[in-house]
Design goal:
- With 1673 residues, this protein is mostly beta strands.
- Helices cover 6% and strands 45% of the residues.
- An eight-stranded parallel beta barrel has the order 132-133-135-136-137-138-139-140.
- α5 packs parallel to α7 (1572-1581).
């Protein structure tokens, strides 16, 4: 590696020298000079390796910066690849600009561009300067020679030889260099290096020598075993020679080895998420510290090459260094490193495969292989889940919403528990989720194998299925009796060779078909297949089945397919072809072994219409007559038909459509095509005719004419007929027609089917030689008509027919010549004889009116008395019509034929007009009195020159009449109809006259026309539906009307006169005001959407304000670009006011609703609460200690009922500053965060104090290493280095092995392997811990409890007991184990496996590893009253030696030996405050020499003998006695009457149990309680597992039935298992309550066997006795 770097570096230096030696003329104006910047790393496109022609190293002579002049392409001499050795940057010494001398064009080998190095790239030390060459010195072999230049000298070279090819450590090594060529003298530079077997290298200082042509020798003493080699460089005036790493110049040295430097590069994880950290630990070794390390990170490219993305340099004294970069995008990254010590260098291997880390994208979505699964009861199923995008690695967790039906473990294995449904939720740690629906059915009770065929061909594969018992589900497995004949693969069978195999299927729960196997026969595969037919034509919708045949004696499935299913589809199994659409298709049958045959199918259209007709269109037949019906379908279509008769009694029909009249009557005959298109024809059977008549249009024909003939039968008869001619030379019969052949006569006869006959004489004349029409042109309105008349040549005969070339314009009756105008246009109507003689008429058709209106001059509807007025009918332009008029009441109004109305009398009538096509119009005419005066009406009395203004007249009320106008000064104003035109400045009198000569005048002033006009605004923005008025101003001293227009009225319309703009739709429009004389001014109008909704909020982000606070409303419109005029108002200004600008002011504590309404009525409301002005403010921080640059939120709190703005600041912005709702730590120190309300209240006296500490420089993770199982969890904790602060986030170096909650630090084992878990501070400082994940347990074993004989686990505990479950985990702890109780009311178990027995009953305890089969414990919890041993209680330790109440050691030992295991003891205080076992000092005399009631001290008590012979017991002694007898239960009868007494005594007892062992013993005791108060007091000191309620100490009589029930209920609810009472108080009436509340009852004190028996039979559970023999379970 080092040698390669050196060679590449030398090559680059040589190239630089060549450039530096170039004379000024060598760089032309077209040459781009590249500065000698640091060489970039090799790009993806490698440059060719250097040739043998050496390139000089670069000197210090600067190279000019690059200009815009392009660089010519490279010559044939290749340039070496760029190495990592940087080239010095250019200095400031300028180089002369390039001259105009051209540089030869480039040859074939391109030179790669040189990319400038990144900023900050260190400049390497310059090589020793070279001797400066004169400007005209030659550049060596690569310099092109000009014409006439002398040839260059021979290139310089050198030969290197060694003194010996091998040596020993300590020997002197020698190399001889012989220069040649070039021009002496020579400078020889000798570079020595050595290589170690592990790839490490060392370079030695360069040795130099000068030679005039003689050889030079270089020596070196070998330090250790290695391979020594050299590079030689020879320089002279004519060039440079650089040797390669010549193997002949190497010397192998053996001897004692010195450890060369080495390094290792270890990735932190094989996979990281995109955006996570890529981390490598680089460790130097073996060499001599300190070390220098260069590390680079490459990213793999799509073409498989690697591209550098990051570099780092490290100096280390020997400790490992860490290279960390962010994984910016998905892909593979590797780390390459190089380490140096003082002597050696070592590089990572080129492949660096062990350093490759994959950055995987985050999971975007997950998908299960199946969205629903059906399982059988007891079955398990492994979910398969895929993730997108490809390459992402999900961290999945599973959960069932119905664990009673189906559970799922951490690996996604579903277990069916009971029938029902459950949904399995699958979640990825990144948030993606999916569900699988699980249906659990019954386990199958039977199964049968389902197969499509029982015979297969060799090589054929057939799917297999299983039919399970009804309502069941489950996995099935198939088997073959002879896998050589038929092999099973999953759910399919493959035929392998001819023979027979028996197939069976077995369910997951063992149900099988082994007793009834499926017989499968395998025959040879077919050698061919054929189809019948091979060609076929079908109509669309028709279908027929093809028949396939395979080679006889073979077997195998075949399938049909169509190459064009859009034309013909085929059933792949049956071969039934269905015609789909018109076209051609090829239907192919292909066997499973690819044998094939085809049928060409042509599909014609199916009929869309079907009609059924009889010959001659007949619908009747005669009795006993036959007639063939003809079905007619669309041309080109295909169909098959079926026929039937609705009543075969009358008419029958054959398969070919022939009907037969069986009886007089009728029936409908139906025909149906294959595509269900139907037709029918009613056939009526009538009597056979007894006569017949001949029918003919004419009995005279022209020669050549053909005329249809007909027959008429008597009424009630029917039948087919035919015709005959007596003179075929004149007339011949052609079917049901006759043809005139020659002039003459012939008898024409008609015959019926039953031989009845009728005749007539036909005359034949010559054919006409011409024809004419009575008119050549005809004009009509649409809907009008006229008849044309034709005339033949005299003496001829023949039929004529009229036709129109455009019947859609003018149609004509074929026979009569009646022309009817159909539509506007021109047509030619032609009459033509049978022998093609013709004449024509040109017909023009104008439109008929579609609308008709009737109007009077000036739109008047009134006339004056005796006034005449001509009405005008108006029809569609271009249409034609004639009109008729009439009046609805001629008494008042008459109307002439020309539409002139006349007012005859004051009143009214309606005048009607009607066009020829019946289009009508009407006008109501009112006759009023004649006017006695008139008024002149004008918009203005000032006009601009050239302006025209409409004039009007106003008549007195109740009058009417026509008027006209006059001008007194036509030079200034002229009258034009009912308008006046301003001609020149001046004045004129304008007069109006009525029809009855009444007059009125006014003076009109004419001013100059305006020279310009302007608008009050140039731009206007409106919302749709909004409006604004534009104002126009004219040139001063002028006059004239203005009109407003919009170029896009669909966007913004404007009132023509007023300038009122109304926004219509979104867009832009230009509103223009234009004077009458053409001057304009415009306003650009932009119309935005009107709001679809108005949203209102307070700009303070709250819904409240404080009293006196002013807050701006934030009004938002939907859509965002909408505009509107908003109006605001308050529902109650007593509390809230709002200004037109939307500023809200809180007036008084309370609330009001503020409304905002847009111009388009869209409105909204915002309820605003007004709080009192705050009297104070407090501030808290999300965290009060932060690291530098860390952030935290602040929270301000106001007194209850107040509201208002709070401003927050820092009093020390050098330490912390406030931005928005965040406090940002700036530098270490403390800062007070101050909150100030809008009304000046603050928390200056009690600020929120923020402490800022230095940002972390280290993070410690606890534990630092751990081992867990796959599926286990582990909670990590992490802390920053002391004195710093900052939040921490967790991440996994390999999520495929272990995932970790970013915030929680909870690790989950994903798969076996080692992973590094990182805890990274907010500033990127990491901490790590090493985690090993082992495989999940296959099956969990327990240390405790021990397994029973069956291998299971069973445990019996007493209520209140605790038991530690210990799994057998090997090197694992309890991590990854979960514990669960099936009945938590009986027993609970915590996360550590500590089992707590709560009440009697049974439960199953499940100990489940995160993976593997769980262990279960069958737990039975007994009350202490149910314990194994005695059922009875020894009173006061029981009697001994005939004595009672001793509470002595001897009494215990005696009764323990008798079988007692439950002992009642009495506790009393000694005089010095200790607890001893004694019944009652006041009742039982303890010391003989002391009276009753004397309370001894502890010393006195311990030194005495009870009853002179028995050993007394202290409380301490009782504890020791119980420790020695773990099967003993002691009931404490303390006789404490009050809660205070109970608290004092039990506190002393608990304090005395001062070791864990004693405390456990203390916990085994059963506490006597005597009231609810004493229970609560004792339970408050220590919660005993077991209690007895003593119903005697505070009670003087037995309880009532309800009282006992209440007591039993209290005991049940508080875990008190027994009630002790005087045996004389017991009654069977208490049994029901004792049973209901599961409370045992002990009777005391009983020493009679008979009494004990009676009590036990009466429901007592236990006997408290002094002397009775105990009952043993």
């Amino acid at each position: 590696m080092r040698a390669l770097l050196r060679r590449l570096g030398i090559a680059l230096l040589c190239l630089a020298m060549l450039l530096s030696f170039a004379p000024p003329g060598a760089l032309s104006a077209e040459t781009e000079v590249i500065p000698p910047t640091a060489a970039p790393e090799a790009t993806e496109t490698p440059a060719p390796e250097a040739t043998e022609t050496p390139v000089p190293e670069a000197t210090e002579t600067p190279v000019p910066e690059a200009t815009e002049t392009p660089v010519p392409e490279a010559t044939e001499t290749p340039v070496p690849e760029a190495t990592e050795t940087p080239v010095p940057e250019a200095t400031e010494t300028p180089v002369p600009e390039a001259t105009e001398t051209p540089v030869p064009e480039a040859t074939e080998t391109p030179v790669p561009e040189i990319t400038p190095p990144p900023e900050g790239t260190p400049t390497p030390p310059a090589e020793p300067p070279l001797e400066e060459l004169p400007p005209d010195a030659p550049l060596g072999l690569n310099t092109p020679l000009g014409d006439g230049e002398p040839p260059l000298p021979e290139p310089v070279s050198a030969a290197v030889s060694v003194g010996a090819a091998s040596a020993h450590a300590g020997d002197t090594l020698s190399w001889t260099v012989a220069p040649s060529g070039g021009e002496a003298p020579y400078e020889i530079r000798f570079s020595l290096f050595k290589e170690y077997p592990n790839g490490a290298e060392k370079d030695y200082p360069v040795q130099t020598a000068t030679s005039g042509g003689e050889t030079a020798t270089f020596t070196h003493v070998a330090e250790d075993a290695a391979r020594y080699g050299c590079f030689v460089e020879v320089r002279c005036a004519s060039g440079i020679y650089a040797s390669d790493d010549d193997p002949a110049a190497r010397i192998e040295v053996d001897g004692p080895a010195v450890s060369p430097v080495a390094l290792s590069v270890v990735r932190a994880a094989e996979r990281v998420p995109v955006g996570g950290e890529l981390k490598w630990t680089i460790s130097p070794a073996d060499g001599r510290a300190p070390y220098a390390i260069e590390a680079a990170v490459d990213k793999k490219q799509p073409d498989g090459t690697w591209a550098n993305v990051a570099e780092r340099d490290f100096d280390t004294a020997g400790e490992p260094v860490t290279l960390t970069i962010a994984a910016a995008e998905a892909g593979e990254y590797r780390c390459l490193a190089m380490v140096w010590d003082d002597d050696d260098i070592f590089n990572t291997p080129a492949d660096a495969s062990e350093t490759v880390v994959a950055a995987v994208p985050p999971v975007a979505s997950i998908a299960p292989a199946s969205a629903s699964v059906a399982l059988g009861l007891g079955e398990s199923y492994a979910l398969a889940v895929s993730a997108l995008p490809e390459g992402s690695v999900p961290e999945l967790s599973y959960d069932s919403n119905n664990k009673g039906v189906a559970t799922v473990d951490a690996l996604g294995t579903v277990a069916a528990k009971k029938t029902g449904t459950a949904t399995i939720a699958i979640r990825d740690a990144g948030g993606a989720s999916a569900t699988v629906s699980v249906t659990v059915k019954k386990a199958p009770t039977s199964v049968s194998l389902v197969a499509s065929r029982s015979t297969l061909g060799v090589g054929e594969v057939m799917p297999l299925g299983a039919a399970l018992s009804s309502g069941s589900a489950g996995r099935c497995t198939f088997f073959s009796s002879d896998p050589t004949v038929a092999a099973i693969d999953a759910n399919a069978v493959t035929a392998l060779k001819p023979g027979i195999a028996y197939l069976t299927v077995t369910t997951y729960n063992g149900k099988t078909t082994a007793k009834k196997p499926f017989k499968l026969t395998v025959l040879p595969a077919p050698e061919s297949v054929s189809l019948d037919p091979t060609e076929w034509t079908l109509g669309v919708g028709d279908s027929k089945a093809l028949k396939a045949a395979i080679t006889p004696g073979s077997a195998g499935a075949y399938a049909f397919s169509s190459d064009n299913e859009a034309v013909a589809k085929v059933d792949p199994k049956t071969g039934k072809v269905t015609a789909v659409s018109v076209g051609a298709a090829v239907v192919t049958v292909k066997t499973f072994n690819e044998k094939a045959a085809s049928c060409a199918v042509t599909v014609a259209p199916a009929p869309t219409k079907l009609s059924l007709s009889a010959p001659g269109g007949r619908g009747t037949i005669g009795l006993y007559e036959k007639m063939r019906l003809t079905p007619a379908i669309d041309p080109g279509s295909e169909a098959t038909f079926t026929y039937w008769s609705s009543n075969t009694r009358y008419v029958t029909v054959g398969a070919d459509g022939t009907v037969y009249g069986r009886r007089v009557g009728s029936a409908t005959v139906y025909a149906m095509a294959h595509n269900k298109v139907k037709a029918s024809l009613k056939i009526t059977v009538k009597k056979a005719p007894r006569s017949v008549s001949l029918r003919a249009d004419r009995l005279t024909l022209g020669v050549g004419e053909v005329m249809a003939l007909g027959a008429a039968l008597p009424s009630g008869t029917a039948g087919g007929c035919w015709f005959e001619s007596s003179n075929p030379g004149s007339a011949v019969i052609e079917g049901s027609a006759v043809r005139a052949v020659a002039p003459g006569k012939s008898t024409i006869a008609v015959w019926t089917y039953n031989w009845k006959k009728k005749t007539a004489t036909l005359t034949v004349l010559p054919a006409p030689e011409g024809v004419s029409l009575d008119r050549a042109e005809l004009a009509l309105g649409v809907g009008d008509g006229a008849t044309l008349k034709a005339a033949l040549t005299p003496g001829s005969a023949g039929a004529c027919e009229f036709t129109s070339d455009k019947p859609e314009i003018a149609k004509v009756d074929l026979k009569t010549g009646r022309v009817t105008a159909v539509s506007v246009g021109a047509a030619v109507v032609t009459v033509k004889t049978f022998n093609e003689k013709a004449a024509s008429c040109a017909v023009t058709v104008a439109p008929a009116p579609t609308k008709l209106s009737l109007s009077a001059p000036g739109g008047r509807g009134t006339i004056g008395l005796y006034e005449k007025m001509r009405l005008t009918p108006a029809i569609d332009p271009g249409s034609e019509a004639t009109f008729t008029y009439w009046s609805s009441n001629t008494r008042y109004v008459t109307v002439g034929a020309d539409g002139t109305v006349y007012g005859r009398r004051v009143g009214s009538a309606t005048v009607y007009a009607m066009a020829h096509n019946k289009v009508k119009a009407s006008l109501k005419i009112t006759v009023k009195k004649a006017p006695r005066s008139v008024s002149l009406r004008a918009d203005r009395l000032t006009l601009g020159v050239g302006e025209v203004m409409a004039l009007g007249a106003a008549l007195p009320s109740g009058t009417a009449g026509g008027c006209w106008f006059e001008s007194s000064n036509p030079g200034s104003a002229v009258i034009e109809g009912s308008a006046v035109r301003a001609v020149a400045p001046g004045k004129s009198t304008i007069a109006v006259w009525t029809y009855n000569w009444k007059k009125k005048t006014a003076t009109l002033t004419v001013l100059p026309a305006p020279e310009g006009v302007s608008l009050d605004r140039a731009e206007l923005a409106l919302g749709v539906g909004d409006g604004a008025t534009l104002k126009a101003a004219l040139t001063p001293g002028s006059a004239g009307a203005c009109e407003f227009t919009s170029d896009k009225p669909e966007i913004a319309k404007v009132d023509l006169k007023t300038g009122r703009v109304t926004a219509v739709s979104v867009g832009t429009a230009l509103v223009t005001v234009r004077t009458f004389n053409g001057h304009e001014s415009s306003c650009a109008v932009t119309v935005f959407p009107a709001p679809t909704a108005v949203r209102l909020s307070l700009s303070n982000g709250r819904g409240s304000v404080g009293v006196g606070e002013r807050v701006q409303l934030a009004t938002a419109l939907d859509p965002a670009d909408a505009k509107a005029t908003i109006v605001y108002w308050s529902s109650n200004t007593k509390y809230v006011t709002v200004g037109a600008d939307g500023v809200v002011t809180g007036k008084r504590a309370g609330s009001a609703t503020v409304y905002a309404k847009a111009h388009n009525k869209k409105q909204t409301a915002l309820k605003i609460w007004v709080g009192n002005a705050p009297s104070s403010v407090s501030l808290t921080l999300e965290r009060n200690v932060l690291g530098e640059r860390e952030e935290a939120a602040w929270i301000a709190k106001l007194p209850s009922g107040s509201a208002g703005r709070v401003d927050v600041r820092s009093d020390n912005e050098a330490v912390a500053r406030v931005e928005g709702n965040r406090v940002i730590a700036v530098a270490p120190g403390t800062a007070n965060i101050i909150a100030t309300t809008y009304n000046g209240k603050n928390n200056v006296k009690t600020p929120a104090v923020l402490t800022v500490r230095p940002e972390p420089t280290g993070v410690a993770v606890s534990p630092s290493a751990a081992v867990i199982c796959k599926g286990d969890t582990l909670k990590l904790s992490a802390a920053v280095n002391e004195g710093s602060a900052g939040a921490i986030r967790f991440s996994s170096g390999d999520p495929g092995i272990a995932s970790v909650g970013e915030a929680t630090g909870v690790v989950i084992g994903v798969s076996p392997g080692d992973a590094t878990i990182s805890a990274t501070a907010y500033n990127g400082v990491p901490g790590t811990m090493a985690l090993r994940v082992l495989p999940a347990l296959e099956a969990l074993a327990l240390k405790t409890p021990a397994a029973d004989a069956s291998g299971g686990y069973a445990l019996v505990l007493r209520k209140g007991d605790r038991f530690q479950i210990a799994p057998e985990m090997g090197e694992l702890t309890h991590l990854g184990i979960t514990y669960a109780s099936s009945n938590t009311s009986v027993a609970s178990v915590d996360a550590s496996g500590l089992l707590s027995a709560k009440k009697s009953g049974s439960a199953t305890i499940t100990v489940k590893p995160y993976a593997g089969k769980p262990a279960t414990i069958r737990l039975t919890v007994q009350k202490w009253t149910d314990q194994v041993g005695s059922l009875d209680i020894a009173h006061a330790m029981g009697g001994v030696g005939g004595l009672d109440y001793s509470n002595s050691l001897e009494a215990f030992e005696y009764n323990y030996a008798r079988g007692y295991r439950v002992f009642e003891v009495d506790l009393s205080w000694t005089s010095d405050g200790e607890i001893v076992l004694w019944h009652d000092w006041s009742v039982n005399q303890f010391l003989k020499d002391k009276p009753k009631g004397y309370v001894p001290s502890l010393a006195e008590f311990e030194s005495a003998k009870i009853y002179g012979q028995y050993t007394p017991l202290t409380y301490q002694g009782l504890l020791a006695l119980m420790e020695a007898h773990p099967d003993v239960t002691v009931v404490l009868d303390t006789k404490v009457r009050t809660a205070d007494q109970a608290t004092k005594l039990y506190t002393k007892m608990k304090d005395t149990a001062d070791t864990p062992e004693k405390l456990d013993t203390f916990d085994r005791m059963v506490a006597y309680v005597y009231s609810k108060d004493t229970f609560y007091a004792i339970d408050g000191v220590h919660h005993f597992k077991n209690y007895v309620f003593g119903y005697y100490l505070l009670n003087k009589k037995p309880p009532s039935t309800s009282g006992f029930a209440s007591l039993a209920k209290f005991c049940h609810e508080n875990g008190i298992d027994m009630i002790a009472m005087n045996y004389k108080w017991w009654s069977t009436k208490y049994k029901s309550a004792a049973k209901t509340y599961d409370v045992a009852v002990a009777a005391h004190t009983v020493n009679s066997v008979s009494t004990a028996k009676k009590l036990l039979s009466a429901g007592i559970s236990s006997i408290v006795t002094d002397h009775l023999t105990p009952r043993i379970k």
